Amino acid sequence: MPLSTTGELVAEAAAHRGAVAAFNIITLEHVEAVIAAAEAVGEPVILQLSENAVKFRSGHLRPLAAAAASAALASTVGVALHLDHVKSEALLHQAADCGFSSAMFDAAHLPYAENVAATRRAAAWAHSQGLWLEAELGEVGGKDGRGPLDAHAPGARTEPGEARRFVEDTRVDALAVAIGSSHAMTSRDARLDHELLAALSDAVPVPLVLHGSSGVSDENLRRAVQGGISKVNIGTALGIAMTGAIRAELHADPARFDPRGYLAAGREAVADTAIRFLTTVAAVPAG
Predict the structure, then answer these.
(1) Strand, coil or helix: what is 175?
(2) Which one of 84, 150, 169, 193 is the catalytic residue?
(3) In which domain, by residue range, is 197 found?
(4) CA-CA distance, 91 to 51, in Å (whole number)?
(5) Total domain count for the chain?
(6) Fewest C-beta in 10 Å: which of 128, 134, 159, 263?
(7) Across-strand partners of 234?
């Protein structure tokens, strides 16, 4: 079917007090696995390609984006393409020509006034190209190899009043909020601040996004969606699944040299993990 847009999928989920799952992709096997998982559970999905993943692919955005778009067109469920955690305006400006309907512009590391200015500029450009733009306020920790932020560190939590002003000043379409999750978590014991989420949901007029969802338990993930999260980002859990499966395959047969066998195992493990998250998000009752 035709490519869906991130804005449509998130708006539909938000209208029903639900969320859409968004998975970070690095290889074609990720693409195939996530789409297979979405088809298995009959749920739409967002494929996300981050700036770091583009760097891994020698700085080239188009090849994997084209493969993802081709796979999406052959899918039986709605699939959207999203450019994730973009700090480079030059990379952001490639999104419209590579099949992306949306991007997340990440200026959360900057002081507040600079974050507002950079994000406003990014949103204005995105909207001129018909793209939906997500931003972040309050820094979700664990980026670029750094550990999670202490709960009391400056910027470790998103303040509701500031978030409302940020959205008004930047005109972004969605806001990623810091409520206790962290990127690159390999355990699922993040402690989400659900009271803060409720306040943010009341204060902010655009859909809210949860980054670092790999580190959130199923119960807390469902509660976060019920509390107002409309887009759930998952990346690390896919890496854990793929690497674990490949490691097991090579350990069982150290002489193996054909990558198809262990990549197939990795792809299957990613699909199983994606099914678990899709099912968790889809199982949230409407509020």
Answers:
(1) strand
(2) 84
(3) 6-282
(4) 8
(5) 1
(6) 128
(7) 23
